[in-house]
Amino acid sequence: MRIGELAEITNVTKRTIDYYTNIGLLKAERSTSNYRYYDHSSIERLLFIERCKEKKMSLQCIKKLLLDKNVEEIDVKELSLKMKGLKKEVDKVLSTLHKGNANSYEYIKKNISPEALSLIQTLLLLLSD
């Protein structure tokens, strides 16, 4: 299907689809007349990207997920549970930091997951702008 058809089916703008294609989130085949054609798996992939964006995931994070797994293999419920778990972990870290004693920093270093640490670093970068 052409980009306009994909845009209509998924309710995503052609410009957004073009951008996702340019950054490698979607794949398109080119015709001899240089039209982009997308296969039917692009619909699921695009809808997955949009669901992740609704959950405030960065395009870089989404791209990593798509490279690690096929969209068909990604369980959105599992992903949602993982995000809730990270939120609880970050909330616990923030609570510990608010207590402000020297032991709290050691506790955080020993008990925080790499995923939560990465999330905190990303949040700090966003807040520093």
TrEMBL record:
Protein name: DNA-binding transcriptional MerR regulator
Plastid keyword on record: no
UniProt cross-references to PANTHER family, sorted A to Z: HTH-TYPE TRANSCRIPTIONAL REGULATOR CUER (PTHR30204:SF95), REDOX-CYCLING DRUG-SENSING TRANSCRIPTIONAL ACTIVATOR SOXR (PTHR30204)
Residues of the HTH merR-type domain: 1-68
PROSITE patterns named among the record's database cross-references: HTH_MERR_2 (PS50937)
Coiled coil stretches, renumbered: 69-96
Organism: Bacillus chungangensis
One MF annotation (Gene Ontology) recorded for this entry: DNA binding
SUPFAM superfamilies: Putative DNA-binding domain (SSF46955)
SMART domains: HTH_MERR (SM00422)
